[in-house]
C-alpha cells in the first residue's frame, strides 16, 4: 500500500488530484455511477486501492442517509454443518466489489422473534437485512413490508404480499431422494422433517408424499423428533424405530446432523447401511463424501445462496421491483453441478 501525504489518511480529494478529475466525479465513480465512463471508474478505483483509501462511513451516512451496512441475522443452525460460514462466504463475495460491508448479528432466540430486526430498523443500523428460517406467516416479513425496509429472506412464506427471497427447492429434493430410495429397492420409507412452524417443512412433506403416492410404497413421518432435535435425540428416536416392528428400509434425511444420527442408529442397531437401510441425505458441507459406507446424497449450495441473497438485496435497495428478486435454487447431484 502506498504512503500518502506523510501518513495522512487519503481522501477523495487525494484521488481526484491523482486522477485529474473532480471530487464529485470520484464520489460518483466509487459509487459505480454508470454516467461515469467505465475506464474512468476503473482508474479511480485502482488509485483508491493503491493509496489505501477507506470511505469515511460517518460522512457518507450524513451525506446519503445510508449506512453502507448489510445486516445478517444469524440463528443457530445445527441441521447443516457450516451453515453460517457458507452463507457469510457467499454474501461477502457479492459485497466485495461494493462499498457495503457485512455485520452479523447472532440470534439465539433469547428475545421474542423479530425484536432483533425491529431494533435494526428503528435505529437505522443497516440499509438492508438478511435472515433465514422463515415461517408460513412470518411476522418479521410482515413487519419489514409494513416498514418498507429493504430485506431478503432465505426461505419463503405464504404471505399474500410478494417479498424478496432465495430458497432451496426442498420439494424437489424430497421427491428426488424418495425416487432414489425406491429405485434402489426400498419399500418402507420414512422422512425426518423440520419443526411445524417452518415453511420448508411443507415443501419437504409435499415432495415426499408426491413421490411415495406415485409408486404406492409404505411410508411414515418420524414424528417424535425434528431436524432441530439434538443429535442424541435423533439417534435415540431412530434407533427405537429400527427396533420396532416393520421398520423403514429407506430414510430421507434433509439435514446433515440427522443423516449422521441416522447412520449411527442404523449401525448401532446391527443393521448395514445400504443393504438393510438405504439413506439419502441433503448435504451442503460435503462431509458425507468422506463417510463410509457411502450413502446417497443431494446437495444444497449455501455459498451460492449467500451470493444470491446479497446480490438481490442490493438490487432491492436500489429500487428494483420485488417480483424480480425471488429465486429458488435447484437441487445438485454433486457440488457445483
From TrEMBL:
SUPFAM superfamilies: lambda repressor-like DNA-binding domains, Periplasmic binding protein-like I
CDD domains: HTH_LacI, PBP1_RafR-like
HTH lacI-type domain: residues covered: 10-64
PROSITE patterns: HTH_LACI_2
Superkingdom in the source lineage: Bacteria
GO MF annotations, alphabetized: DNA-binding transcription factor activity; transcription cis-regulatory region binding
Coiled-coil residues: none
Sorted UniProt keywords: DNA-binding, Plasmid, Transcription, Transcription regulation
Signal sequence extent: none
InterPro entries from the UniProt entry: HTH_LacI, Lambda_DNA-bd_dom_sf, Peripla_BP/Lac1_sug-bd_dom, Peripla_BP_I
Family matches, as PANTHER family: HTH-TYPE TRANSCRIPTIONAL REGULATOR GALS, LACI-RELATED TRANSCRIPTIONAL REPRESSOR
Protein name (Swiss-Prot/TrEMBL): LacI family DNA-binding transcriptional regulator
Taxonomy of the source species: Bacteria, Pseudomonadati, Pseudomonadota, Alphaproteobacteria, Rhodobacterales
Amino acid at each position: 500500500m502506498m504512503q500518502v501525504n506523510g501518513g495522512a489518511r487519503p481522501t477523495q480529494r487525494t484521488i481526484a488530484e491523482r486522477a485529474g478529475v473532480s471530487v464529485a466525479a470520484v464520489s460518483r465513480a466509487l459509487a459505480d455511477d454508470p454516467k461515469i465512463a467505465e475506464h474512468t471508474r476503473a482508474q479511480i478505483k485502482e488509485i483508491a486501492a493503491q493509496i489505501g483509501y477507506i470511505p469515511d462511513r460517518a460522512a457518507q451516512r450524513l451525506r446519503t442517509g445510508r449506512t453502507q451496512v448489510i445486516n445478517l441475522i444469524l440463528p443457530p443452525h445445527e441441521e447443516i454443518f457450516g451453515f453460517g460460514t457458507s452463507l457469510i462466504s457467499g454474501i461477502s463475495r457479492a459485497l466485495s466489489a461494493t462499498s457495503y460491508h457485512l455485520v452479523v448479528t447472532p440470534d439465539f432466540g433469547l428475545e421474542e422473534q423479530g425484536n432483533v430486526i425491529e431494533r435494526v430498523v428503528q435505529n437505522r443500523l443497516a440499509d438492508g437485512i438478511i435472515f433465514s428460517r422463515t415461517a408460513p406467516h412470518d411476522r418479521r416479513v410482515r413487519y419489514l413490508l409494513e416498514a418498507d425496509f429493504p430485506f431478503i429472506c432465505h426461505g419463503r412464506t405464504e404471505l399474500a404480499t410478494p417479498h424478496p427471497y432465495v430458497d432451496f427447492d426442498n420439494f424437489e429434493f424430497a421427491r428426488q431422494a424418495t425416487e432414489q430410495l425406491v429405485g434402489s429397492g426400498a419399500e418402507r420409507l420414512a422422512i425426518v422433517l423440520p419443526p411445524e412452524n417452518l415453511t420448508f417443512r411443507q415443501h419437504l412433506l409435499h415432495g415426499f408424499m408426491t413421490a411415495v403416492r406415485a409408486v404406492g410404497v409404505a411410508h411414515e413421518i418420524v414424528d417424535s423428533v425434528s431436524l432441530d432435535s439434538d443429535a442424541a435425540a435423533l439417534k435415540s428416536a431412530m434407533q427405537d424405530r429400527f427396533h420396532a416392528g416393520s421398520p423403514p428400509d429407506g430414510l430421507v434425511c434433509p439435514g446433515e446432523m440427522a443423516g449422521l444420527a441416522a447412520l449411527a442408529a442404523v449401525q448401532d442397531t446391527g443393521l448395514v447401511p445400504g443393504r438393510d437401510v438405504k439413506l439419502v441425505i441433503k448435504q451442503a458441507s460435503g462431509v458425507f463424501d468422506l463417510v463410509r459406507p457411502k450413502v446417497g446424497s443431494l446437495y444444497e449450495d449455501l455459498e451460492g445462496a449467500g451470493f444470491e441473497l446479497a446480490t438481490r438485496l442490493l438490487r432491492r435497495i436500489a429500487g428494483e421491483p420485488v417480483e424480480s428478486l425471488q429465486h429458488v435454487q435447484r437441487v445438485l447431484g454433486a457440488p457445483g453441478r
